[in-house]
Design goal:
With 273 residues, the protein is of the alpha+beta class. The structure holds coenzyme A. The site of coenzyme A (COA) has 21 residues, from strand 4, helix 6 and helix 7.
Length: 273
């Protein structure tokens, strides 16, 4: 499913190796190579985690999440994800761990690769590592047979929403109601894993900014305060809109910044006959 073209960076500009109609397998091979190359240019490398990495992974996770959130995934869970899922770690030249991401596959008809955790060490933030790890995880997931990529995202985590919506190209179709900490009011991110959906949904921040700065919103689109979950819920469920973009953070950090989310319809590039 595609976001409106006027909001997105053309796929050929976003990924120079992208060609209209290219096979998904070719796209993901090249996507993986581009991320590995980018890591090398930062003097970093990724590898799949091994069991003896678990203590260091736990340490990194506890350094970035509040303890109650970090503890939602126990070392017992991590053991299984390392053994049977896809836990990626990124290391610098001295083998210090600077980021990690957990993905796990499910035998659901969508064949999803499910993102469970994504952590970047604090001093390595804003260098594009979360975006890069998302792309790498998609490519590795595809290689492992996944054909969709799903996640639940905390609606209060502004940075994560911005990264996933604008940079990674995700969109959200619902909010979870279940009244349990860790999932309540989390966005449901679900999308097919194919070249077009991956390449053509990255947001052009300038386009979002011009809407924020007063350009006329196209009919049916809505720009809503990110805290206004009742309105967003109703637009998702009753109006069939999807959350497609977040307002970029101000260049100069500003405590009064209030994130807004843009909701539009999505286009189906392969409508049923
Ligand atoms: C969220 C997290 C993974 C992002 O990692 P990262 O490597 O810094 O992400 P990227 O560099 O790819 O992108 C960060 C973008 O967020 C932007 N950003 C920074 N503060 C922001 C804010 N308050 N609101 C919105 N966006 C913000 C940055 O400007 C940057 O964009 P830019 O490159 O255009 O400047 C990292 O901050 C982290 O580990 N947080 C703790 C754990 C967590 O919350 N994980 C998310 C679970 S999905």
């Amino acid at each position: 499913m595609l976001k409106p073209r006027s909001l997105c960076i053309p796929p050929e500009r976003m990924f120079p190796f992208y060609r209209a109609g290219m096979a998904d397998a070719d796209f993901f091979i090249q996507l993986k190579a581009a991320q590995v190359e980018r890591l090398a240019s930062m003097r970093l490398r990724y590898r799949l985690a091994q069991l003896d990495d678990i203590p260091r992974i736990e340490q990194l996770v506890f350094s970035r999440y509040p303890a109650n959130v970090a503890a939602e995934i126990s070392p017992f869970d991590t053991y299984r994800y390392v053994r049977y899922g896809q836990v990626m770690v990124v290391e610098d030249a001295s083998a210090a761990m600077v980021a990690c991401a957990y993905e796990v596959g499910y035998d659901h008809p969508d064949c999803p690769s499910y993102l469970l955790r994504l952590v970047v060490r604090e001093d390595m933030e804003s260098r594009g590592l979360a975006t890069l790890l998302n792309r790498l995880a998609s490519a590795l997931g595809y290689e492992r047979g996944a054909r969709a990529r799903h996640a639940l995202l905390d609606s209060t985590n502004q940075m994560s929403l911005y990264v996933h919506l604008n940079k990674v190209g995700s969109y959200f179709r619902d909010l979870v109601d279940v009244p349990c900490e860790g999932i309540e009011n989390h966005y449901v991110s679900e999308r097919p894993l194919n070249a077009l959906t991956q390449a053509a949904n990255v947001i052009n921040d300038q386009a979002v900014m011009s809407l924020c700065n007063g350009a006329q919103l196209p009919y049916g689109w809505r720009l809503v305060d990110a805290q206004d979950l009742p309105t967003i819920r109703s637009l998702l469920r009753e109006h069939g809109l999807r959350v497609v973009a977040a307002t970029p953070p101000p260049v100069v950090k500003n405590s009064g910044y209030r994130q807004k989310l843009l909701l539009t319809e999505l286009e189906n590039p392969h409508p049923p006959n």
